[in-house]
User: Which sequence fits this backbone?
């Protein structure tokens, strides 16, 4: 029986044209993704079931397995004849050499043999030959590649129907496409195939309609199974927007639409990478970037009776005979903007309404530091030009659909690319920038997708828990804490200038490591303004809460075991320890606290007592972290005790964390001796520098809820004025907000900043001066009260 090949079919044969056929590319990706599990499976029947599941995957996406019919004397089926042959709609993107041949369905046993053979292959074949797929060949004989979707990582289900044979043999399950399975293989296949959804459930969802409306051959094995469906973006838009009846549904559609935009951008970036690195010419022609040519595979999951739709992959199908014109980067970005406008509104833009502006030197701002085109006001401040009437109309169309302003701005900034070098400053310049913005909206919609609330005292988007530009330091802290959880004594020092964020980095251990792992975290801060006449007061503030927490959280048997060990270690000499740890009286009996008049070396005695106490407590407690902040201000006696504890706790599970400044010069002998005494026990020594441009820009992007590409000019100015010091940066941002150099505007509803005035602003290079300027704004009576309180 002759068959007209379609895009999703797997064609048996050799040669570049066959290898680059879309169905073959997807089939190879699917097989390669299963090779590892296939090789690790020792049971032959399960291996065979895996091959059956691969076949089912291809068929569930509308594919068949075809081979060339070399015995038939009939003529090949031409595209315009396909309907009369019962082949349904043919895909016009098929290579002409494929259409010239006669094809016939492959027998199931042969299909299974071929799939098993490919699964056994050691080396995965490339998804595309060096000679790329093409709709036609150029004169130089080179072909042009169409982008490839990512492989499907989960199996789709296959429809099976148990049949009772008339001859009394073992019942089999018969599928019209894959043949007979015995019941053991059927059970194995079910175990390898995700749970399926009933056809009635799928029919109820608008995105799960097939192109021709038929779904009878796509019933699944089990209720609630994921269901894969391939369609064009045009069809997906039409089917989904029709069913949106509430803001909640629109919110869900927006997030799903952003996922489509995300995968489409990745697809186009992948094509650019092929073009730049592999020498492929015009991988995706400009005229092919339309909603009709963009193909999607969606997946519908049924979890606890709830439907969850996800986008598996998106790619661009290049029609047969399409122009190979690539177009400029700006033209391609404009095409993406047109597609996204249609994606979120359902309206296809009439591109004839866009007319190129005339080039004029008066339209250029030659003083723009970024070298971009813009307009200037009378003060020389660079500002965005007013939207055109067309821009207002497009914004109105987007807003009427309930889209938040950040998403409207993203689409308008893509459409603005139509004007090339005369586009506004915030028009996109690359797909990479677009990908970053879409990712931000998907990953953090509360900050980057929602419209801001316009206020005279706007709320910044930063959170106190997030650290900027400290990814490497956080990685090292996580490794150190992991060693602590494995029973090691870990010692980490963190050094850096004032305001660089040492304490925040250390406190990150408490919030993200200690508390989630059920640990205990205790901190003490040394202060240069505190009299050192009572050197044990700071240590008491960390060890006394430790004892109280041990009594509160440790099981009774653990407390009793610790009590007995401490009694044997202290005897009657615990009275001195009670000076630092008053709550020890709740752990030890009164007989351990007999005062003595015998002269003792207070340093050696306290080192012994605290060391013994800490070793016993650590053996019966949750993971303990002791954080000593600003140890450069600690008295020599406290530093000596801490160093002694680090030495005596080796082999026990505890984390010592000490922060100190490194801008105090070499005159701090106590700090130098302490660092020398613990150097042999150090697990890691972290040095914090000021933030670099990326860290400053991420901080400003989060704070102002703007794309990093928009805040980057501001980040450069802020970096120059603060040298990247986080404390200084935070204070300066507050200063700019108070002075209305950073503000919220109504049109557009977002944060704005006056870059020219910020650049001209004179800022002290001393963060203390900036803090004192903040202090001077406080009411005079409150200032006096604070001065008096500081003397108490």
Assistant:
């Amino acid at each position: 029986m002759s068959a007209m090949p379609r895009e999703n079919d797997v064609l048996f044969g050799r040669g570049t044209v066959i290898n680059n056929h879309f169905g073959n590319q997807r089939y190879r990706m699917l097989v390669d993704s299963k090779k590892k599990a296939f090789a690790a499976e020792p049971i032959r029947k399960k291996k065979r079931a895996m091959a059956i599941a691969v076949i089912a995957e291809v068929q569930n996406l509308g594919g068949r397995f075809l081979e060339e019919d070399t015995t038939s004397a009939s003529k090949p089926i031409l595209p315009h004849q396909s309907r009369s042959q019962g082949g349904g709609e043919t895909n016009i993107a098929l290579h002409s050499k494929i259409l010239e041949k006669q094809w016939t369905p492959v027998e199931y046993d042969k299909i299974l043999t071929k799939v098993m053979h490919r699964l056994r292959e050691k080396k995965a074949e490339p998804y595309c030959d060096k000679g790329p797929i093409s709709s036609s060949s150029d004169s130089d004989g080179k072909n042009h590649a169409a982008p490839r979707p990512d492989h499907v990582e989960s199996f789709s289900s296959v429809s099976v129907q148990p049949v009772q044979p008339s001859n009394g043999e073992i019942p089999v399950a018969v599928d019209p496409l894959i043949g007979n399975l015995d019941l053991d293989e059927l059970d194995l296949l079910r175990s390898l195939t995700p749970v399926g959804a009933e056809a009635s459930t799928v029919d109820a969802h608008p995105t799960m309609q097939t192109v021709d409306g038929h779904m009878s051959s796509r019933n699944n094995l089990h209720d609630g199974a994921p269901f894969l469906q391939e369609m064009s973006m045009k069809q997906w838009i039409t089917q989904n927007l029709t069913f949106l009846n509430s803001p909640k549904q629109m919110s869900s559609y927006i997030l799903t639409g952003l996922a489509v935009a995300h995968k489409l951008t990745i697809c186009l970036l992948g094509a650019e990478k092929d073009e730049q690195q592999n020498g492929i010419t015009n991988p995706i022609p400009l005229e092919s970037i339309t909603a009709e040519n963009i193909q999607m595979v969606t997946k519908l999951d049924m979890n606890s009776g709830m439907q969850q739709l996800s986008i598996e992959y998106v790619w661009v199908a290049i029609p047969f005979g399409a122009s190979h014109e690539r177009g400029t980067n700006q033209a391609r970005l404009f095409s993406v903007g047109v597609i996204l406008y249609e994606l979120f509104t359902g309206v296809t833009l009439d591109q004839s309404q866009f007319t190129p502006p005339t080039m004029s030197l008066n339209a250029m701002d030659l003083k723009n530091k970024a070298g971009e085109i813009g307009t200037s006001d009378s003060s020389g401040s660079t500002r965005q030009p007013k939207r055109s009437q067309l821009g207002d109309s497009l914004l109105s169309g987007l807003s009427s659909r309930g889209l938040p302003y950040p998403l409207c701005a993203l689409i308008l900034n893509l459409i603005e690319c139509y004007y090339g070098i005369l586009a506004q400053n915030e028009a996109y310049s690359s797909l990479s920038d677009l990908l970053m913005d879409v990712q931000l909206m998907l990953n953090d919609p509360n900050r980057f997708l929602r419209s801001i609330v316009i206020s005279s005292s706007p709320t910044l988007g930063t959170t106190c828990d997030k650290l900027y530009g400290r990814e490497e330091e956080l990685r090292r802290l996580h490794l150190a804490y992991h060693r602590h959880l494995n029973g090691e004594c870990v010692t980490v020092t963190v050094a850096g200038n004032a305001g660089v964020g040492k304490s925040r980095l250390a406190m990150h251990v408490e919030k993200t490591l200690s508390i989630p792992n059920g640990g205990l975290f205790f901190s003490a801060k040394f202060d240069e303004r505190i009299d050192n006449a009572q050197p044990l007061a700071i240590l008491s503030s960390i060890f006394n809460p430790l004892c109280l927490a041990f009594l509160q959280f440790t099981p009774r048997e653990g407390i009793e075991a610790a009590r007995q060990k401490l009694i044997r270690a202290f005897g009657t000499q615990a009275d001195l320890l009670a000076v630092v740890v008053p709550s020890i009286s709740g752990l030890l009996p009164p007989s351990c606290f007999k005062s003595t008049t015998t002269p003792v070396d207070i340093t050696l005695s306290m080192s012994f007592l605290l060391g013994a106490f800490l070793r016993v407590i650590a053996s019966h407690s949750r993971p303990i972290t002791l954080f000593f902040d600003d140890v450069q201000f600690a008295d020599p006696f406290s530093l000596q005790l801490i160093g002694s504890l680090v030495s005596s706790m080796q082999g026990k599970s505890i984390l010592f964390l000490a922060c100190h400044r490194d801008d105090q010069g070499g005159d701090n002998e106590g700090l130098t001796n302490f660092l020398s005494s613990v150097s042999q026990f150090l697990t890691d020594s972290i040095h914090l520098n000021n933030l670099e441009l990326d860290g400053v820009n991420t901080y400003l992007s989060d704070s102002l809820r703007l794309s990093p590409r928009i805040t980057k000019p501001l980040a450069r100015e802020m970096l120059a004025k603060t040298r990247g010091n986080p404390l200084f940066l935070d204070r300066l941002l507050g200063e700019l907000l108070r002075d209305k150099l950073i503000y919220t505007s109504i049109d557009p509803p977002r944060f704005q900043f006056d870059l020219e005035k910020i650049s001209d602003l004179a800022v002290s290079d001393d963060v203390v001066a900036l803090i004192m300027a903040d202090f001077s704004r406080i009411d005079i009576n409150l200032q006096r009260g604070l001065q008096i309180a500081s003397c108490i």
